Amino acid sequence: MADPSLRQALEANEFILAPGVFDMISAKVADGMGFRALYATGFGVTASHLGVADAGIATYTDMVSRMGTIARGCRTPLIADADTGYGGLLNVRHTVAGYEAAGVTAIQLEDQEMPKKCGHTPGRRVIPAEEMALKIRVAVETRKSPDFLIIARTDARTSLGLEEAIRRGKIYAEAGADVIFIESPETEAEMAEVGKQIRKPLFANMVEGGRTPILPAETLHKYGYRIAIYPAVGFLTVAAALERAYAQLKKDGHSNNLPADASYGFGRMCELMGFPEVWEFDRKWAEIAGNLPPRKAAE
After folding, report:
1. DSSP state, 81?
2. Structure pTM?
3. What CA–CA distance (Å, rounded) separates 1 from 50?
4. Span 263-282, pLDDT tens digits
5. pLDDT in tens, 128-157
6. Which has the closest alpha carbon to 83: 7, 177, 151?
7. Is 116 helix (H, G, I), strand (E, B) or coil?
8. With contact defined as beta carbons under 8 Å apart, do 153 and 110 qualify?
9. H/E stretch holding 196
10. How far is CA 27 from CA 37, 69, 161, in A?
């Protein structure tokens, strides 16, 4: 069931900062930190689940299963990447219904041709704006709850220019999208221009090393952005930490020399994964089982 708090925050003109999560460890860590939303990144989920590029290889079945696992395992509302809707209009209907049933609160749909590519990589091509507008209309018609937000993304900026990207954003807003996502503007001035021209809540994609400048939350809010995602910060940090730890292990032949702050700690990880509840369950039922009469030998 979609969490109404995201729509309420948008209506109250609040700013939502959402870290990228890509598996259940990253999701559970972020879930306990007080964010208003989490963003399930297509790049990160595809990489962690399949170990391949975010280039249209992951299917609807791959993604809805992983997104549902994350949504069910967290208290924080989840914004989920759904690529192009995995096909045409019928696929979009199936995708929206599936993501909403899985417990996601907001779905991101983009206007790329299939197979899609990561929004901060080259070679992206887009479908006609009118075709994407139909996808948005189908998505709006399909959702069961108005609290399930439709985020419409255009990748037109890189190949067709900012003016075309803004034109598409306006068309997608008219089609019923709740939030407009102009992917990869290349300067702060471009981001400000988007905010001047599109009168809908805007979505900012802050990728370390990407095409768009990373701006403070206060600046984004001033320009009209209401949601900012940091999809890569988690998996980029984790990959670097793993590389350092594995290199130290290989060099020393043991893990005793890892810096004290390099490890989350086995005890903390047990708590994060819910082991105390499991242990309490075991204690309770072991005591009850211990009071059962002895089993009779089979005759």
Report:
1. E
2. 0.92
3. 27
4. 899 999 999 999 999 999 99
5. 999 999 999 999 999 999 999 999 999 999
6. 151
7. coil
8. yes
9. helix 188-197
10. 11, 10, 35
Contacts of residue 246, defined as CB under 8 A and 6 or more positions apart, other chains included, come to none
Cβ 156 vs Cβ 168: under 8 Å? yes
Listed in sequence order, the residues at least 6 apart from 297 whose beta carbon sits closer than 8 Å to its beta carbon are none
The half-sphere exposure of 1 on its side-chain side, counting CA atoms within 13 A, is 3
Give the span between the Cα atoms of 222 and 156, in whole angstroms.
Answer: 24
Across the range 106-130, mean pLDDT stands at 81
Q: How far lies 100's CA from each of 28, 50, 61, 71, 217, in Å? A: 20, 23, 14, 10, 28
What tens digit of pLDDT does each residue of 50-76 get? 999 888 888 999 999 999 999 999 999
Q: Is 149 helix (H, G, I), strand (E, B) or coil?
A: strand
Q: 251: alpha, beta or left, given left = phi > 0 and alpha = psi -120 to 50?
A: alpha
What secondary structure letter does DSSP report for 86? S
